[in-house]
Amino acid sequence: MAGHSKWKNIQKRKNAQDAKKGKVFMHHAKEIYTAAKLGGGDPEMNASLRLAVDKAKADNMPNENIDRAIKKATGALDGASFEEITYEGYGPGGVAVIVNILTDNKNRTAAEIRHAFKKNNGNLGENGSVSFMFDRKGYIVITNEDGTIDEEEITLEAIEAGADDIVTEEGAYEIITAPENFNAVCEHLRESGYLLESSEITFIPQTYSSPSEDDEKNMLNLIEMLENNEDVQDIHHNLEESE
């Protein structure tokens, strides 16, 4: 992870996305769905879900939208039959991509994902074609833009709680955990008074890819097309974005 910041990549695109109000609720719905799917539908027992719900409410997302996202994840949505699918492939310049889907129409979604890759000079592969390049980890971000959080103190707190690693970035700390320790680490940090900016179980690249300027532009277009698809729940990739 040293020298590479998942948080910086997220932040760049999130700032651009959230400027478009129409995408904000979709973004929150996906975060709520993912948290509920991985950790259960009770916010009191699921730190990631509680954080996702709090953020959604802060942006005035209606409660019915929040409830629908949770029910969708837990299989409690009446009259709906959803299927989970994972697509793997390479974006332009050989960037590895994993896309997690939840859809009620497999054929429609497959065509849309295939089109997004093809339009941006990427190609889909078989399951397992790129997932070996990622590690499944718990991932937590605590921002420190004002510089008031002591690095040594938060490092000791995180390690004591069961974290595997902590990475110091400009204005933020990125904390990495084993999936089974994720909730315990989140709770410990919360109880210690830290505000979690982001928390999720995700796939972290073992290595990063730095494609040409044109390939990076196409890769960012691919990511945007996928993020705009309401069936897409998560996108994981190993693109190292240029400054």
From TrEMBL:
Pfam families, per the entry: TACO1_YebC_N, Transcrip_reg
Biased composition (Basic residues): 1-14
All copies of domain TACO1/YebC-like N-terminal, residue ranges: 5-75
Source organism per UniProt: Virgibacillus litoralis
Domain of life (superkingdom): Bacteria
Entries under InterPro entries matching the protein: Integrase-like_N (IPR017856), TACO1_YebC-like_2nd/3rd_dom (IPR048300), TACO1_YebC_N (IPR049083), Transcrip_reg_TACO1-like (IPR002876), Transcrip_reg_TACO1-like_dom3 (IPR026564), YebC-like (IPR029072)
Domain TACO1/YebC-like second and third: 82-239
GO MF terms, alphabetically ordered: DNA binding
Region feature (Disordered): 1-22
Keyword annotations from UniProtKB, A to Z: Cytoplasm, DNA-binding, Transcription, Transcription regulation
Location, primary (coarse class): cytoplasm
Protein name, entry field: Probable transcriptional regulatory protein J2Z82_000584
Family, per entry: Belongs to the TACO1 family.
Compartments reported by the entry: Cytoplasm
